[in-house]
Amino acid sequence: MICRTIVEGTTKISVPVPPPDANFPPSAAPVFYNPEMELNRDINVAATAAFVERLLSRKDIKREEIRYVDAFSASGIRGLRIAGEVGINATMNDWSSEAFELIKENIKINGLEEKAQATRKNANVLLHEQKFHIVDVDPFGTPAPYLDAAATSAQSMLSVTATDTAPLCGAHLNSGIRKYAAVPLNTEYHSEMGLRVLLGACARELAKHEKGMTPLLSHVTRHYVRAYLEIIPGTKQADRTLKSMGFSIHCPKCGFRGPVYGLAVHIERECPACGALTKIAGPLWLGPFKEPEFCNEVISELEAHPLNTKDKARKIITFCRDELDIPMFYDQHVICKELGASATGIESLIEALKASGFEASRTHFSGTSFRTDAPVVEIKKIILALSG
Fold first, then answer.
1. Do 121 and 151 belong to one domain?
2. Which end of the chain lies in a sparser environment, N or C, as judged by fewer CB atoms within 10 Å?
3. In this structure, are 234 and 358 located in the same domain?
4. Using one digit for the tens of pLDDT, what is the confidence trace for 184-225?
5. How far apart are CA 124 and CA 114, in angstroms?
6. Which of 54, 49, 67, 55 is nearest to 9 (CA)?
7. What is the pTM of this model?
8. Residue 366: which CATH number?
9. What is the end-to-end Cα distance of the chain in Å, rounded?
10. Among 306, 322, 338, where does a domain finish?
């Protein structure tokens, strides 16, 4: 296995060199390493560091007692960065014998023998066998087969990545239904649909184990969904969490969308805005997908660490922090195309909505997306007035 040395943050690791003729080089290498996910890992360092500080302030626990596991480690980069840059005990697991050997080598390279351990087990077996304060599930593809074990193991925080955005967002409908036991809709807000389907799946898995959750930070970036969930044990917390579950109504004719809370609900077939037949997505998460105070703590940690993607990470988290907690977002360009109107700057639209007495904000999902409590008919009136 031919390797090269790379540096992320303050962590140096050896990674395999993929074949030059591979269609997707990272997956063709003997051990998976995707440089495109450095932004994900930079945010992970800052978010985990912020959560560790919370844990230290709330519980009678020392930093060296906090246990973190990366269930799908490959080269070990994610867990090594947590051990070296956050300073907590990290377990890096991978089923591949080549990955296992490379992880052990990378532990030595960074001198982290006292803080980092390598294991070679099926991820579900490891997570059922051991409890960890922080469980990180970042597989190649869907996390769905591992959520039950992760919910069993996680004591304080569950961090999840999903790269199977097509099933989550409704582009591969049947696959999404099979994996997440939810019906996603492929709409202009498909990225948020995927995020809320994933959060809903996590909430239901945790509830099985009498655990509730509070989403601290969630974001959709390019080809993946990422969520950081605080685990709160107890049946009352599990019940509280499930109250944020429900369904989303979508009218393909007029663009109306609205939440219906509950897991056994009555939903009218006709759109309340135009009378056309609606479509239904769910069950999914309808509650907040981030905590503004935690976002501020993550931004502070970003500034405290040497990170290559610091500016991009700060921008994403700032947008997340400032988003309204209203599902689902609208896309300005989609509405403008329907109306035959010219699009103004997104900030002008936000200000016009606020001037009309509504709440409104941008989102991190795209540069043309926005949230508002304005009815869809009022949104269209304001967009026409701006373009007129």
1. yes
2. C
3. no
4. 999 999 999 999 999 999 999 999 999 999 999 999 998 899
5. 25
6. 49
7. 0.95
8. 3.30.56.70
9. 63
10. 322
Q: How many CA atoms lie within 13 A of 26 on its CB side?
A: 9
Total structural domains in the chain? 2
Per the document, the length of the chain is: 388
- For residues 307 and 346, state if they share a domain: no
Report whether pLDDT(30) > 60: no
Distance CA 62, CA 4 (A): 36
Beta-sheet pairing, 245-250 with 257-261: antiparallel
Contacts of 206 (CB under 8 A, 6+ apart): 151, 158, 212, 213, 229, 231, 238, 241
Contacts of 139 (CB under 8 A, 6+ apart): 71, 72, 123, 146, 161, 163
Dihedral sign (CA 185, 189, 193, 194): positive
DSSP assignment of 1-46 equals: --EEEEEETTEEEEEEPPPTT-SSHHHHSSS---GGGHHHHHHHHH
Q: Which helix (H) or strand (E) holds 160?
A: strand 154-162
The helix (run of H) or strand (run of E) holding residue 296 is helix 292-304
337 and 305, same domain (yes or no): no
Q: d(Cα 165, Cα 171) in Å, to the nearest integer?
A: 8
